[in-house]
Amino acid sequence: QVQLVESGGGLVQPGGSLRLSCAASGSIVSVNAMGWYRQAPGKQRELVATLGSGGSINYADSVKGRFTISRDNAKNTAYLQMNSLKPEDTAVYYCNGNLRYYLTDNTVYTKTYWGQGTQVTVSS
C-alpha cells in the first residue's frame, strides 16, 4: 500500500513558525513532483508551494518569502517550513505527491496521491 502521511500541524501565535512533514511510504521507486496545498473554511483548496523532480520551485504570492518547501529524497519526505505565520494562514494543509511505485507484477506505475491533511491554526 502506498500512502502519504502528513504531520506537524498545530496552534501557533502570529509571527510563529511550524514545520510540516509529508512522508511517502510503500513500494516506492521514486518521488517525482511534490507540493503543498491548503484549504480554509468556506474557501477553495489553493496551491501553497510545489517542488518538481528537477528542482523547480513555485510559491503562492501570499506565502512567498515566508514559506520554504524542501525534500529529502532518501526518506521520500517533503517539508514545508512556515515562518512569520499570519492568522490568514489558518487552514488545513494537504501534501500532494506524484509517485512511482511497484505492484505485485513488478510493473512500475505512476500516480498522484494526497495526504489526509493537517490543521494549522494561527491565533492570538
Describe the structure using short key phrases.
0% helix, mainly beta, seven-stranded mixed β-sheet, 59% strand, four-stranded antiparallel β-sheet
Task: Outline the structure in words.
A hairpin with a 6-residue loop joins strand 4 and strand 5 (46-51). The mean pLDDT is 95. It is built from no helices and 11 strands. The strands form 2 sheets. Strands 2, 4, 5, 6, 9, 10 and 11 form a 7-stranded mixed β-sheet that branches. It has strands at 3-7, 10-12, 18-25, 28-39, 46-51, 57-59, 67-72, 77-82, 91-102, 108-114, 118-122. The protein is elongated and about 55 Å long. The chain is mostly beta strands.
Write the layout of secondary structure elements.
Blueprint: E1 3-7, E2 10-12, E3 18-25, E4 28-39, E5 46-51, E6 57-59, E7 67-72, E8 77-82, E9 91-102, E10 108-114, E11 118-122
Parallel strand pairs: 2-11
Antiparallel strand pairs: 1-3, 3-8, 4-5, 4-9, 5-6, 7-8, 9-10, 9-11
